[in-house]
Amino acid sequence: GVILLPITILGMFLGGFLIKKFKLHITEMAKFACITFIVAYLLNLLYFTCSCEVLQVAGLTAPYSGLKHLSSPKNSFMASCNADCSCKLDQWDPVCGDNGITYMTACFAGCKSSTGMGKNMVFHNCSCVKGRVYGLGNSSALLGQCQRESCTKAFPYFLALQTACAFILALGGTPTYMIMFRSVSPDLKSFAVGIETLGGRVLGGLPAPIYFGALIDETCLKWGTKNCGGSGSCRVYDTKAFRNVYLGLIAGLRAGCCLLYIVLSILIMKRFK
């Protein structure tokens, strides 16, 4: 928000300045808006190159190190190292082992003791953790999920790409509104603005959280459990599936918008030629 808001404001003001500076005709504004939207759409496709690996959770997305699973299809978190620990499957208090793998709880890591308090808590003698130095059973684990290096490396690239897309979209935003004002009869301008706002809410603002949320939920690998027994929030997502579903849906919707922009430009150029 701190980065995108000033960039968006700058793009909108610059778009208006260009219209006034070069005294663009409505046909030229239509071409300008269409080109900026298509360029932003092509840049948006580069989001697919931003990769972030799935969180490595023992028994869920990664195997227990060199250990035989004692699991059923409904319970893949049990192994020979934690079979006698009576771990609860509905708990989620992740720890990061020395091997870089996250465990649902310290119990599933087979840890026997702990030191420290709060965020600084360290668990010791973890029978399921195969450390890089000590080997199996003599390793420790830290409270919290393990960090993913690829996510940290990809974030600046993602932020720069998002900034460029936001600026280009904002640049064409002002010409789009000016097209509406100049192509509609003076007595229908307020009505046109109302229809445009209504269309955005009905087609985008209201239903989008529903179908986006439904698709995102399909990529969840581990659901939390509420105290009353119902399903809670998602603990671990399949990151690659999440990316493909989320960005794929956006790309599909914007492809339709690009087609409409091209049709709009052709109609305006024919009408105001």
Automatic annotation (TrEMBL):
Gene3D superfamilies named among the record's database cross-references: 3.30.60.30
Bilayer-spanning residue ranges: 6-22, 29-48, 155-180, 245-269
Gene Ontology BP, a term: sodium-independent organic anion transport
Molecular functions (GO terms): bile acid transmembrane transporter activity; sodium-independent organic anion transmembrane transporter activity
Domain Kazal-like: 75-130
A family per Pfam: Kazal_2
Keywords: Cell membrane, Disulfide bond, Membrane, Transmembrane, Transmembrane helix
Membrane topology: Multi-pass membrane protein
Superkingdom, taxonomy of origin: Eukaryota
Location within or outside the cell: Cell membrane
InterPro entries for this protein: Kazal_dom, Kazal_dom_sf, OATP
GO CC list: basolateral plasma membrane
Transmembrane as UniProt keyword: yes
Protein name according to UniProt: Solute carrier organic anion transporter family member 1B1
Protein encoded by which gene: SLCO1B1
